[in-house]
Amino acid sequence: MEKFCFGALARILHYCCKIGVTQHELGEGLLKVFDKVYGETVGTTKISRLFNCVEGLSPDYTVKPAREMTIENVKAGFSSYVLPLIDENRYQLVILASRQIILLDADIKEETNVGTITKTELRIKNNYEFVGTVAGFLQYSCCCISNKDGKTFIDQIDRDFVDGFVKDVDTIIIERSVVVSSEIIEKTIEQRIQCYLQFH
């Protein structure tokens, strides 16, 4: 049975990375979205086990932060640590392959928000803001799904599976947007207030 989880998304993203990007490099980037220090210290074996759904995500360094972070900060982390690794020409494949698994995952209810989009909306949507959509998928896969649950399905996600969506790339439109984390916004507001108080 199809199962959407961290490992599934990670594999899809890896098959859509720029030439030369290793599984470890991508995995490190994905984990850094939720805890920069933890992501930088995770070894190759751990990353491999996560990609193969043999092991679960860290409750303290990934799951808990994923539940507590705003989508804007997840988007900012994704833009910093993951987006530079992805081949821009394969953005559509990331969305299409991920969407397919989500729609076929019987454990995800129609009214469930997978990121900022419900499963029902995902069925009919053809216009996607890439960073926001994939960051939402990532956050959902970390805080709402056990990675080990994908173990029986994960081997079906290979390069042929992802490349099988090449024929459908014209069925969706990818939008791009500027991402600013809420922390940066808050600091900017604080600086403006301090500046105002200094000169008034």
Helices and strands in order:
Blueprint: H1 6-14, H2 23-32, H3 36-41, H4 44-51, H5 59-68, H6 71-81, H7 91-104, E1 113-114, E2 117-118, H8 119-124, E3 127-129, H9 130-143, H10 159-163, E4 173-175, H11 182-199
Parallel strand pairs: 3-4
Antiparallel strand pairs: 1-2
Helix pairs in contact: 1-2, 1-7, 2-4, 2-6, 5-9, 6-9, 7-9
Write a concise synopsis of the structure shown:
The chain has helices at residues 6-14, 23-32, 36-41, 44-51, 59-68, 71-81, 91-104, 119-124, 130-143, 159-163, 182-199, and strands at 113-114, 117-118, 127-129, 173-175.
Account of the protein in words:
Mean pLDDT is 90; it is low at 184-189 and 191-200. Helices cover 56% and strands 5% of the residues. The longest helix is centred in the last third of the chain and has 18 residues, at 182-199. With 200 residues, the chain is mostly helical. Helix 1 packs antiparallel against helix 7 (91-104), helix 2 (23-32) packs across helix 4 and helix 6 crosses helix 9. 40% of the residues are buried. The protein is globular and about 40 Å long. Strands 1-2 form a two-stranded antiparallel sheet. The protein has a two-stranded parallel sheet with strand order 3-4.
Strand/helix succession: HHHHHHHEEHEHHEH
Q: What is the average per-residue confidence, as pLDDT, rounded to a whole number?
A: 90
Q: How many runs of DSSP E, i.e. beta strands?
A: 4
- Mind telling me the C-alpha Rg? 17 Å
Structural class: mainly alpha
Tell me about the largest β-sheet: 2 strands, antiparallel
How are the strands of the largest sheet arranged? 1-2
Q: Please bin the fraction of helical residues.
A: 55-70%
Number of helices, where a helix is a run of at least 4 consecutive DSSP H or I residues: 11
Unreliable runs: 184-189, 191-200
* Relative strand content: 5-15%
Can you tell me the overall shape?
globular
> Could you give the distance between the termini?
64 Å
